[in-house]
């Protein structure tokens, strides 16, 4: 049985999505990723006394111009040309997702994850826009797979946590994008609108949900809707010059927040787990 969770950071370029998800390493300003991992490791340790043993596997990828890149691949650096391996996404009948050839690393502590995050941040596609000196030009997806087994009761549980730093939503004129940057911005905007199409199709209970319209939505298909839990942070910039973008982001947030897209069911039999959420939470 699987518990699947997605947490997104959405917003205009430079509004603090990466800061929200990663924090500032080394300055004790932790983001959602290190905080979640700390919590997970703490909880797994506290459950040891009840016979639970956990195995955790992390992977990190980015989707840049609709192409998957493995951020933990040996020898990977941001100067590498895109292309090379063609990573393909597969879902099995149980809703387990695999990406072919993607590096998956066993992690045993928060320190392990921190060093992987550092490695991944050096490999991420960044570029300079008028809005942000170090702008993320890709969607970043951190995935933690958790396998738990209880020696005394024989129970087994599985979970998947996806933490996603989306590429910045931005209007072409404002971002100052030309050439490659323009192509990137168009790809980003297209995939963000594919994400909202999927969310709203699930909310409306449409027969067809267009998961296949972008790599991001196809990758996350089993983790969106159904029994899964999804949370979205919307980051906005307080500057007056960003008012137009802020309004767009807030409009998007209020539409998303109005979505009730399913009932998140508790999937584990662990006596200690709480079941206080029966609604997918957006916004
Ligand atoms: N709450 C905050 N406190 C302190 N600094 C912040 C905060 N939010 C953002 N920053 C800083 O603002 C700058 C832009 O933030 P960040 O890179 O997180 O934006 P972003 O939304 O991820 O942008 P992009 O989409 O272009 O990648 C960074 O230098 C970041 O450290």
From TrEMBL:
A single Gene Ontology CC term: microtubule
SUPFAM superfamilies from the UniProt entry: P-loop containing nucleoside triphosphate hydrolases
One GO-annotated biological process of the protein: microtubule-based movement
Domain (Kinesin motor): residue spans on this chain: 1-259
Keyword rRNA-binding assigned: no
InterPro entries referenced in this protein's UniProt entry, alphabetically: Kinesin-like_fam, Kinesin_motor_CS, Kinesin_motor_dom, Kinesin_motor_dom_sf, P-loop_NTPase
Molecular-function annotations in GO: ATP binding; microtubule binding; microtubule motor activity
Binding locations of ATP: 11-18
Pfam families: Kinesin
Sorted UniProt keywords: ATP-binding, Microtubule, Motor protein, Nucleotide-binding
Stretch list, region Disordered: 75-96
Family: Belongs to the TRAFAC class myosin-kinesin ATPase superfamily. Kinesin family. KIN-14 subfamily.
Name of protein: Kinesin-like protein
């Amino acid at each position: 049985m699987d518990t699947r969770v997605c947490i997104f950071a959405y917003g205009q370029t430079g509004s603090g999505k990466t800061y929200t998800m990663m924090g500032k390493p080394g300055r004790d300003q932790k983001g959602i990723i290190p905080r979640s991992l700390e919590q997970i490791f703490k909880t797994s340790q506290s459950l040891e006394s009840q016979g639970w043993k956990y195995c955790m596997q992390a992977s990190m990828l980015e989707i840049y111009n609709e192409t998957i890149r493995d951020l933990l691949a040996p020898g990977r650096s941001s100067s590498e040309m895109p292309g090379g391996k063609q990573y393909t996404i597969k879902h099995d009948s149980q809703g387990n997702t695999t990406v072919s050839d993607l590096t998956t690393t066993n992690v045993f502590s928060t320190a392990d994850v921190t060093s992987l995050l550092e490695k991944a941040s050096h490999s991420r596609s960044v570029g300079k826009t008028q809005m942000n000196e170090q702008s993320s030009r890709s969607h970043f997806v951190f995935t933690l797979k958790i396998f738990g087994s209880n020696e005394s009761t024989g129970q087994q549980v599985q979970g998947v946590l996806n933490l996603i730093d989306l590429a910045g939503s931005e209007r072409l004129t404002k971002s100052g994008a030309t050439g490659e940057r323009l192509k990137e911005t168009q790809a980003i905007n297209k995939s963000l609108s594919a994400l909202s199409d999927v969310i709203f199709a699930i909310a409306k209970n449409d027969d067809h949900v267009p998961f296949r319209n972008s790599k991001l939505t196809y990758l996350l298909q089993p983790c969106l809707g159904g029994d899964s839990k999804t949370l979205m942070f919307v980051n906005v910039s307080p500057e007056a010059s960003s008012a137009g973008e802020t309004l767009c982001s807030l409009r998007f947030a209020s539409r998303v927040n109005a979505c009730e897209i399913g009932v998140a069911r508790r999937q584990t039999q662990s006596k200690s787990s709480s079941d206080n959420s029966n609604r997918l939470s957006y916004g």
